[in-house]
Design the sequence.
């Protein structure tokens, strides 16, 4: 099936030659006219996927608790507090966080300015409606670099999975870059080209991995992580990064497309399906450590949420509710924190970084 964006991509390839995976990824999501995040409503049951904040208010409440805890461990600073979310979706997560912060730490709520980093004007409109009751506190920026300097409490929920990756395929002569080109039928297809990258960044060619093995590298993600860590190093604060992926760098093709809650061929519906890939948390932690900030730790989302008290909060929320509502609350906790197919507790990870060094629950040790 052709889409308006697939026709545009084919013309680019005809003119300039094959695209890298990272360029294809970026065009699919951010093309000004037909890009996925520029033209579609991706979130919720009527969209293509449901993010954790849309499942239950409990998720945002737990992150609100974490933010308050981090602020307290940093010594309750009161000047130039920046509460930042990058990629705020519909604004649901920030809404739930602010409700909890206002109850648990009124001083933090009063002192903090809320800064949302959002490139899509359409999504900014949705966020304005969601956060209408806090409109005096909220401002929007197109880039993280534009956020005013100051002590920073930052949340990035499902941000990094949407930042493009490069892919390299093992061949008998070493790793070659995976590209998107046109096949004999003038359809989009994967191909292999020369790896235009420092070989030191790729695994050594021998090894036990069979030919065809894919290795993913994400310079754009590294750059974002470096910017976040640098901000914390200079001005102090904590960042919580939540996404699906692995705690250990490894091999594998994790590029995936989702269309109407179903997996789709990444080349089938450019601009109409969401494109993501799994996040390498070990790599992000290395970048942050190189900047000189503290790695509090990396936990599975289920361990993080249970450690912050989601079970106890759910029990309180369910108290005196009708049985069907109690069942819905329990099901939401299971989906957010449980293990197994369709659940987020194991696949999703939470990486926390801080500067200066602080001990944060539920992370057990300073790394």
Sequence:
């Amino acid at each position: 099936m052709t889409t308006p964006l697939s026709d545009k991509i084919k013309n680019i390839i005809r003119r300039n030659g094959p695209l890298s995976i990272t360029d294809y990824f970026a065009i699919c999501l951010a093309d000004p006219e037909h890009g996925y995040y520029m033209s579609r409503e991706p979130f919720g049951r009527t969209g293509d996927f449901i993010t954790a904040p849309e499942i239950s208010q409990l998720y945002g409440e737990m992150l609100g608790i974490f933010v308050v805890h981090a602020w307290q461990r940093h010594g309750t600073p009161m000047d130039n507090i920046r509460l930042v979310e990058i990629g705020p979706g519909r604004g649901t997560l920030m809404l739930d966080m602010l409700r909890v912060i206002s109850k648990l730490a009124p001083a933090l709520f009063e002192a903090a300015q809320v800064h949302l980093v959002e490139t899509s004007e359409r999504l900014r409109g949705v966020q304005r409606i969601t956060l209408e009751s806090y409109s005096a506190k909220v401002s929007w920026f197109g880039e993280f670099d534009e956020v005013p300097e100051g002590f920073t409490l930052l949340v990035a929920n499902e941000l990094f999975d949407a930042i493009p990756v490069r892919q390299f395929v093992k061949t008998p002569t070493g790793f070659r870059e995976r590209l998107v080109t046109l096949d004999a039928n003038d359809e989009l297809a994967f191909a292999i080209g020369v790896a235009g990258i420092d070989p030191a960044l790729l695994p050594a060619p021998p090894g036990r991995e069979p030919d065809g093995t894919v290795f993913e590298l994400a310079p754009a993600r590294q750059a974002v992580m470096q910017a976040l860590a640098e901000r914390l190093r200079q001005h102090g604060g904590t960042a919580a990064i939540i996404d699906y992926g692995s705690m250990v760098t490894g091999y594998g093709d994790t590029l995936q497309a989702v269309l109407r809650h179903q997996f789709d061929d990444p080349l089938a519906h450019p601009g109409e399906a969401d494109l993501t890939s799994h996040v390498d948390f070990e790599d992000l932690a290395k970048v942050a450590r190189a900047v000189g900030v503290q790695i509090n730790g990396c936990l599975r989302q289920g361990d993080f949420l249970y450690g912050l008290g989601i079970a106890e909060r759910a029990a309180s929320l369910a108290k005196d509710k009708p049985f069907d509502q109690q069942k819905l609350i329990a099901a939401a906790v299971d989906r957010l924190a449980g293990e197994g197919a369709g659940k987020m507790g194991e696949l999703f990870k939470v990486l926390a970084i801080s500067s200066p060094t602080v001990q944060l629950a539920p992370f057990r040790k300073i790394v």
Summary: The CA atoms of residues 52 and 127 lie 16 Å apart. The chain has a mean pLDDT of 92. DSSP finds 13 helices and 16 strands in the chain.
